[in-house]
Input
Amino acid sequence: MIRTVRRSLSIAGSALLMAAALASAQDRGDVRLGITYTPGYQPGLVVTAVGAEPAVADAAEAAEAILRTDMAYADRFEIIPAPDSLAGSGTINYPLWNQLGAVWLVSSEMTGTPTGPVWRVSLHDVVFGELKQVQDFFLPAPGDRDFRMSVHRVSDQIVRWATGDPGIAATRIVFRRKTGDGTSDIFAIDYDGENLTRLTSDNSIVYSPALSPDGGYLLYVSYVDGSPKVYERHLGSGRSSLVSGVRGLNVTPIYSPDGAKIVLAHTAGDHTELFEYGRGPLCCERRLTFTNAGETLNAAFSPGGDRLAITSSPLGNPQIYVMPAAGGAPQLISRYVFGERGYATSPDWSPRGDRIAYQAWVENTFQVVTVNPDGGDRRVMTSSGSNEDPSWAPDGRHLVFSSAGQRGNSLLILDTVSGQVRTLTSGRVDQLADWSGSLP
Output
């Protein structure tokens, strides 16, 4: 059987995307990265202790711990510990920090009240011996449910100051978790593994989660009414509404980058095609693909919303194609050699626009692969175990994916630049992850 793929319908026991001889499918001849990443330069960064008034000491301690983790998980810096002799607040000794290898230094002080801490954060350019940025951030109380996310937003601002690129701390990841005998539900978790939250409780088969660009809505597929239908849930109220329930299959929904449209696959005749739906009272349906052979599903928008990466199987086994979002001829971008059975599914387009990630059958198992939008510069990013369902972080360099191997089932996060891998969840069957954008 085909393994579960991101936003796919194989978990429903469908015959879609079935291959007659999966074991012979190969994606060979690629640059195989895995554990062969060449370490690159990472500027040294030090986070000094947060100076705090007694009334906000607890908030300062909590914020500092979160900030240190965020800076490490950014995978952009060599974290330099602060010696005790330099750990206190006061004048920044730029020459000494420079000798210790620091390029950036974060200093901060917290004032205000326990219910309204004010965090003044400064980023220093140690090499040039100057203050680069300083800003006051108004935080909720440490016990507030938004405290951690507020600190994550501060961390992302520091990353942007230092690198010019977005951070990944103020994000969440939604995924499907098997919760019982044949049942599953959608969960959400912060990017650092905190705040696990169950979003659905359908006591049914649920899969294909996709977050709206603002993080306020969730698309998903559920069998709660006996057949696969696409629903949209408002995460604030918990209310769900039906998006597509045509007879047959309704699967793999996604939002457009501006949140104004939904693209999904549903049955058209004896197979599936992609359709576009408008959101709101003027909702309408428009067919995007006319494959008429095999199955077409699993769309992913380019950042500008003008192109789609899709999974389609007119050649027999599924492959990855790119097509105009308004409809038009698809271009094959995954590796296909006549006489060989390639197999590629679950595309996701990097927010930078420069790479498309997907899963491919490589040497008798699934691995995460990335390519340029034209199919060039193919790279196999994983090498151990079976790895599926890739989804990009908003920085366009981190990927979350499901992994099964000697250590069991996990959701893993990979920095595609440094090769650093960390575990997000483990011990449960978690799949089909979708990484949010930066949350407001």
